[in-house]
Amino acid sequence: METTIETTELKNTLPVKAKEYEAQIALLNKQYGSLVLTDLTDKNQYEIIKDAHIEIKRVRGGIEKYCKAERDLANSYIKANTAKEREILATVTPLENHLLAERTKFENEVQRQKDEFERLRKEIIKARFIRLKDIGCSNDVDFNFTIGEVATGGYHLRRVEIEGYTDDQFESAFEKMKGVADKIKADKEAAELKRIEEEAEYIKRREAQEAEAKRLKDIQDAQDKKEAEIKAREEKLRLEQEAKERKEREEAEAKEAAARKVVEDEKRRIEIEQAKKIAAEQALKDAEQKRQKEEAARIEAERIAAEKEAKRIARQPDKTKLALMSHELMLLKTSFGAVETKSDEGSKIRMAVMSKIEDIQEFILQESKKL
Questions:
Q1: How confident is the model at residue 53 (pLDDT cuts 50, 70, 90)?
Q2: Fewer beta carbons within 10 Å, N or C terminal of the chain?
């Protein structure tokens, strides 16, 4: 039931009054709108304009006074209306609040029961999800659960079924999925047992292989050590032999050089004696002829000496080069000696190469002595 509040009728006379004012202003505009002061010294024209302006101000003041009176009347009406509204509402609000409180009690209880039912339903669904996950079921983003491959005996349970099944229906579906899960678990345990057995067999074979590899390595290490000792002794003997041969070669070269010097000195002495004898026999000849012969003898002696010295010097670079070559072969032999070979055939090839290198070294040594 609605309550009606009786109020004094408020008439709005502004629209009618506005038309009257608009007509009056139009008339004044037509009457005074063309007034213009064309001469600043024209007092008569000034008085006309002044009177017109005063009349217009009076009209404007009347409009403002009328509108203010209408506003005051409206404000007075609004204030009275608002006060009456408050007075009436003060009598009805307590009853409305009382009835709202009683109504809310029932509606809150209905909502509580609804919320409790929804909470219990979600807990049951959550518990069903957990049970399915616990037996190994997988789920997609929409919580549709699957165990195994459906095409090969697996089972699929949609979320709408999980949420809509009664307890008995869900237990029946759960037992089917658990049966599949138990079979998958048993298959995995059997596969894991087989894997463990195979891994144990592999470890056993690997340990046996490692033991055999270690045994063979120990044998190879012992053989390598023995070969290294042999190479060390051979290297020591080779170095001693080279030192001995080098010493003998140097002594022989020194003796040869001394003998050549004696021969050359004697030759030069004989040549000088012969030159002196020739000079004595040719003393009576022209002095210039004697000087020319002596000069020729001297030049010849120097040429012969220079030629011999040049030959001696020319042989030295070849010996040096051959000695460097022999040294490089020695390093190559040492490198071959350090190479590890795993088979008898490889060891034979390595020893044959080292023997060939020694033959080449010996050939270089013997031939260089001839220079």
A1: very high
A2: N
